[in-house]
Amino acid sequence: MTVELACPLKTFYLYETHNETTMKKLLVLLTIALAHAPSFAQCSFTINQVATDVNCEYGNDGVITANPAGGLSPYTFSLNGSGPQATGSFNGLAEGNYTLYVSDASPCMDSVVITLTHIHAAPVLTDPPDQIVCTNTATTAVIFSSNIPGTSFSWTNTNPSIGLAPVSSGNPIPSFIAINNSTTPAVATITVTPIGPAPDFCVGLSQSFTITVLPDVNINLTSATGTNVQTVCSGNAISHIVYTLGGSATNATVSGLPLGVTSSFAGGSLTIAGFSGPYGIFTYTVTATGSCASATATGTIQSMPLSSSVFSYPESNLCQGSINIFPNNISTPGGTFSATPAGLVLSTLTGEIDLSASAVGYYAVKYITLALVSIQAHNM
């Protein structure tokens, strides 16, 4: 068992022991020590203190000064349990409750609780609302206000790239054209501090609000180059066409696709796929939408009919100088005619043979449609 007894200068310990003689000696020493210990209940000095309140709310210019009287000098002083000091003056204090401890040389210790408050209230700022705008559009002017007339305001901005100065003392912040040249939202945090009127210029608590500038909606072809302009035979599968959205885009739709070709949107990308339908040239439009102005992209899909290159001329043996002849029985119009070797004067579009202008010879006439070829030989 250990018993601890406290007095201003010394602490005495009594230990349990099995030695009766030693125990008696310790008790005698303890009795002597207690007989010479001072009494805390009999301090004879008083603490005279002067408290100077904080001038402005949230300030730290308060002062506490202690002037003890009636005790045995020198005195030591401590505030809220801080290290002792030889003077009774404490400066640079904020509002709050403080416990002042004073000890004299007897020694005796006493304490007193002192409360500091403020003399002048600080202004309270009305927190401005946050704003979200699209790039290249105007913000709403921000007008600062507080509960104390004559308050001025200073503010800082964390993101000047949106088109707003990094620091100012203006009120209001006028409307301005917000800028965001990136592909992600630009966020600016504006911190405003109210400052009360003269002569005290008390500074209030700061408030913050944000201006978020959204980027433009954008859309980009991310499948292989040229997949947005395709020509396929009717009924055949097209190569996948993929568009990826960016900026503030959240969705995309497409119009003008041929029968059998559809689109799907997932994960920020729109995919066009399927099998081309009837013959025709189809111009499609992809429209990306979001929080800001929409964006579009276009492409074409040409669906060709299944074709045959079969054709014929009325005769295969022709006489130079005779009337021009034309092919008949063209299964699929729209193809191209050619002849080898050189010497046969032939219209590539109609297949007409100019017999007067052609040289005598043996020629092979070729007719090409989409992916199909037919050849006929003619002798002149």
Write up what this structure looks like.
By secondary structure, the protein is mostly beta strands. It has five domains: 36 residues, no CATH class; 79 residues, Sandwich (Immunoglobulin-like), CATH 2.60.40; 84 residues, Immunoglobulin-like, CATH 2.60.40; 88 residues, Immunoglobulins (Immunoglobulin-like, Sandwich); 74 residues, Sandwich (Immunoglobulin-like), CATH 2.60.40.10. The chain is 4% helix and 43% strand. The protein has one helix and 26 strands. The strands form eight sheets. A five-stranded mixed β-sheet has the order 11-15-14-12-13, with no helix packed on it. It has a four-stranded antiparallel β-sheet with strand order 16-18-21-20, with no helix packed on it. Strands 17-23-22-19 form a four-stranded mixed β-sheet, with no helix packed on it. Strand 20 and strand 21 form a beta hairpin. The chain is rod-shaped.
